[in-house]
Amino acid sequence: MLKIIFLVFMGAGVPVAIAMAGASLVYILMTGNLPPFVVIHRMVSGIDSFPLLAVPFFILAGNLMNNAGITTRIYNFALALVGWLKGGLGHVNVLGSVIFAGMSGTAIADAAGLGTIEIKAMKEHGYSTEFAVGVTAASATLGPIIPPSLPFVIYGMMANVSVGALFLAGILPGALMAILMMLTVAYYAHKNKWGADVKFSRTRLFKALMELAVVVGWPLLLWVVVGKLGAPAQLSVFVGLASLFVLDRIFKFEALLPIMTPVLLIGGMTTGLFTPTEGAIAACVWAMILGFAWYRTLSWKMFVKVCLDTIETTSTVLFIVAAASIFGWMLTATGVTTDIAAWVLGFTKEAWVFLLLANLLMLFVGCFLEPTAAITILVPILLPIATQLGVDPIHFGLVMVLNLMIGLLHPPMGMVLFVLARVAGLSFERTTMAILPWLVPLLLSLVAITYLPKMVLWVPKMFY
To answer: What does the alpha-carbon distance between residue 201 and residue 181 come to, in Å, rounded to a whole number?
Structure first.
């Protein structure tokens, strides 16, 4: 009965959050077993969670980076590093998304922020609008895979697993996805005989490589100073951060300090300096320091606008989580999840078959539901089955999030489609066709992540 009411609401075009809460309320009123106030109580308790505090702060950090001109710096850095390759701007698109993914945590922010710059530049250099839109859409899916990630925060809360471990689990899969996308760009460049988009410059390349060396070398040096030499951790971090600002001032690096954002977050979480929630606050403080004090590209007027945008986005996300909380509770209370688990386990007891079926289901659901809503609905249904079949919850979280990110590229509800269609000035149909070839590297990544769990779990097992 509950499922039928929910499907009726969805078929009538009711927004998914209202459909979930409304279906639960109607079911309670029809059965009369519980007081209607239970709906409000469960919705409030569903968002009364410390890990969920990370949601508004990660959204705020991404918005601050977007409005402080950080995206332009990331684009210029990627251009210096790989723009001289054949099909250079396609490679720049992917690399820029890898870097920005370490700040925004969402695919839509990536598509709207970097996508505006990248599509315009690619069209000016003679690339077809369809190719520009396709590579931008595909690379935007890296946003929630490479840490930090808003979907991982929601999944971690629903599945009761470590958000920090989920963040670490996304590193190698994110790298694999980026490599496959760059190979796809190289294929198109060879097929269409594209040349480089910027002239090769040893000076620019050397400077970009220096930035990368600092990004890699700084945490290693800090680890030696604190871990091996026994220096005070807080003092060492403070001196290390001060040295980054000094290096940036001396060498006038393009994007050293923004690129350090994911390094600081992951480093702080793995060393126990702060929790993922506190890390989200640290990301906001870091973005404000860069925007207000260092680059001086943020004004108080812009800051107020960014905060209002963050409030709007956060309220939408948390309302979906709250509505899904009561809906998921009702599914469990009415025995729907138990019945589904029994049916699946009666059909197969092989983990690989279950993962195949789960992938097909999540790809389908991702086409119709926003990722936050899909996670909150699917976790109570699928995770118990996965656990019974020996699938690690962290591994299953990566599989679920990637499926739902691919769903963002599909009609009828793909938000990345709508964003890029507006940015590029393409029709919805042409945007959909432009993205289809880029499903190949994404689906190959999905197969690898699904059936090579060691690739996902290797990094988190080093620290957890």
So the answer is: 24
What is the percent of the chain with per-residue pLDDT over 90, rounded to a whole number? 9
Q: Give the tokens for residue 92.
A: 């720049």
Distance CA 295, CA 289 (A): 9
With helix as H, strand as E and coil as C, how does 171-185 read?
A: HHHHHHHHHHHHHHH
Residue 117 near residue 130 (C-beta atoms within 8 A): no
**Count of CB atoms within 10 A of residue 446's CB?**
22
Handedness of CA 189, 190, 194, 200 (dihedral sign): positive
- Within 10 angstroms of residue 355's Cβ, the number of other Cβ atoms is 19
What are the structure tokens assigned to 90, written together? 């396609």
Position 425: which residue type?
G
Q: Give CA–CA dist 234/390, Å, rounded.
A: 40
Residues in Cβ contact with 306 at an 8 Å cutoff, skipping those fewer than 6 apart: 60, 63, 64, 67
**CA nearest neighbour of 443 among 405, 412, 413:** 405
| Amino acid, single-letter form, for residue 194 | W
CB 258 within 8 A of CB 66: no
321 vs 46: CA distance, rounded Å = 7
Residue 230 corresponds to which tokens in the numbers above? Answer: 């026994």
pLDDT tens, residue by residue, 166-209: 988 998 999 999 999 999 999 988 888 887 778 888 888 888 88
For residues 326 and 46, the answer to whether their CB atoms sit within 8 Å is: yes
Quick one: residue 161, left, alpha or beta (phi over 0 = left, psi -120 to 50 = alpha)?
Answer: beta
Tell me the whole-structure pTM to 2 decimals. Answer: 0.82
Report how far residue 371's alpha carbon sits from residue 355's, in angstroms, rounded to the nearest whole number: 19
For residue 384, whether the previous peptide bond is cis, meaning omega lies within 30 degrees of 0, is no
